[in-house]
């Protein structure tokens, strides 16, 4: 089962669990149960935000959310190894390779062999990639405004603390070295 299939399966289980926590026999979710389906709500929310970003990036001058992640990483880590970028973005080696190939093909990135290890590949942002970064920043500014809308600063601090806590409770590695593509 792929990682996405596993996430979808767990989301489906979360949805079923929420229904079963509601009114048995009627298939309704109680308000209290609906408010506590955090994994389900987080997953659905992430998918909707991802779709919104990808829809906004639908024109030829924009990049996908995944591509924007690569570009933003490379802004701070110029000439990073493909594996370093993938590990930072928590992508499998094959996913990162495919993403890099598409971005090179689109003219957003350039590749070069590592000076010390000719088998390793480094990535650099091109002029077209820098233009795409500017567009991605505009989209993210719009997204952040939407995400902040209707919330007080105190509420946003709690949301930010909760999301940061997810990263602490569920470490990225979990015994897997994503840069190397397997278990440690």
From TrEMBL:
<protein>
    <submittedName>
        <fullName>MarR family</fullName>
    </submittedName>
</protein>
<feature type="domain" description="HTH marR-type">
    <location>
        <begin position="35"/>
        <end position="168"/>
    </location>
</feature>
<keyword id="KW-0805">Transcription regulation</keyword>
<keyword id="KW-0804">Transcription</keyword>
<keyword id="KW-0238">DNA-binding</keyword>
<dbReference type="GO" id="GO:0006950">
    <property type="term" value="P:response to stress"/>
</dbReference>
<dbReference type="GO" id="GO:0003700">
    <property type="term" value="F:DNA-binding transcription factor activity"/>
</dbReference>
<dbReference type="InterPro" id="IPR039422">
    <property type="entry name" value="MarR/SlyA-like"/>
</dbReference>
<dbReference type="GO" id="GO:0003677">
    <property type="term" value="F:DNA binding"/>
</dbReference>
<dbReference type="InterPro" id="IPR036390">
    <property type="entry name" value="WH_DNA-bd_sf"/>
</dbReference>
<dbReference type="InterPro" id="IPR036388">
    <property type="entry name" value="WH-like_DNA-bd_sf"/>
</dbReference>
<dbReference type="InterPro" id="IPR000835">
    <property type="entry name" value="HTH_MarR-typ"/>
</dbReference>
<dbReference type="Pfam" id="PF12802">
    <property type="entry name" value="MarR_2"/>
</dbReference>
<dbReference type="InterPro" id="IPR023187">
    <property type="entry name" value="Tscrpt_reg_MarR-type_CS"/>
</dbReference>
């Amino acid at each position: 089962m792929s990682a996405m299939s596993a996430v979808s399966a767990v989301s489906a289980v979360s949805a079923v669990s929420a229904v079963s926590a509601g009114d048995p026999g009627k298939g309704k979710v109680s308000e209290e149960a609906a408010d506590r389906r955090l994994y389900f709500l987080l997953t659905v929310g992430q998918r909707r935000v991802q779709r919104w970003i990808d829809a906004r990036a639908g024109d030829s001058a924009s990049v996908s959310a995944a591509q924007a992640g690569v570009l933003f990483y490379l802004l701070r880590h110029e000439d990073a190894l493909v594996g370093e970028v993938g590990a930072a973005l928590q992508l499998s080696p094959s996913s990162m390779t495919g993403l890099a190939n598409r971005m090179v093909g689109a003219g957003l990135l350039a590749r070069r062999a590592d000076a010390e290890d000719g088998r390793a590949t480094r990535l650099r942002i091109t002029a077209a990639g820098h233009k795409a970064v500017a567009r991605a920043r505009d989209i993210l500014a719009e997204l952040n405004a939407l995400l902040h809308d209707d919330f007080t600063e105190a509420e946003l601090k709690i949301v930010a603390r909760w999301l940061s806590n997810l990263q602490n409770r569920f470490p990225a590695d979990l015994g897997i070295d994503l840069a190397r593509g397997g278990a440690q």
